[in-house]
Amino acid sequence: MRLELNRETDYAIRACLRLAAAGDRSLSSGRIAVDTDVPGRYLARVLGELVGAGVVTAQLGRTGGYRLRRAPERLTLLELVEAVEGPSTSVRCVLRQRGCEPTEPCSIHTVWTSAQNAILDVLGGTTLADLLVRERAIEPSSGGSLLKEGITE
User: Fold this and answer.
1) Distance of alpha carbon 82 from its chain centroid, rounded?
2) How confident is the model at residue 151, as a pLDDT?
3) Nearest-angstrom CA–CA distance, 76 and 135
């Protein structure tokens, strides 16, 4: 079993982390793309999805750009994932390839639902602010931080 985020969700999380680091300042899509190493053509689509989902606001014009709609403390990782990928809960039966009947669930239904709920609980309990704290703790020398020197303001 492989648990992975799709590329768009990966890009959405990077962009939102960058916006969280910017605080109340708006950032252009070009600035976000450079700072997060996300291709501009993909970022435009992802930002559009985030605007449509109400996660990010967009303002046109010379002083415009993108900002988080809510404080990072009030935005969960689950909300970001669902903004791009849609609802996280599966309604398809693992064994029967259709919806499980509530009165007659398949033999794996309870186990699968428990595993799914555990993942959703972790994602729903992790805020963008939590991720930002962790990201800032990454040593710049590791090269892994999205918040490189000079772009965290």
Assistant:
1) 8
2) 45
3) 15
Instruction: Tell me whether residue 77 is in a domain.
Output: yes
Residue 152 lies in a domain: no
Average pLDDT over residues 117-127: 94
pLDDT at 20 > cutoff 50 = yes
Half-sphere exposure of 26 (CA within 13 A, CB side): 13
51-85 b/e with 16+ CB inside 10 Å = b? Answer: eebebbbeeeeeeebbbbeeebeebbbbbbbbbbe
The runs of H, that is alpha helices, within the chain are 7-22, 29-36, 40-52, 77-85, 109-124, 128-137
Written as one letter, the residue type at 44 is A
Q: Which domain holds residue 119?
A: 7-142
What φ, ψ does residue 73 adopt, rounded to 5°?
-70, -15
- CB burial class (10 A; 0-12, 13-18, 19+) of residue 131? buried
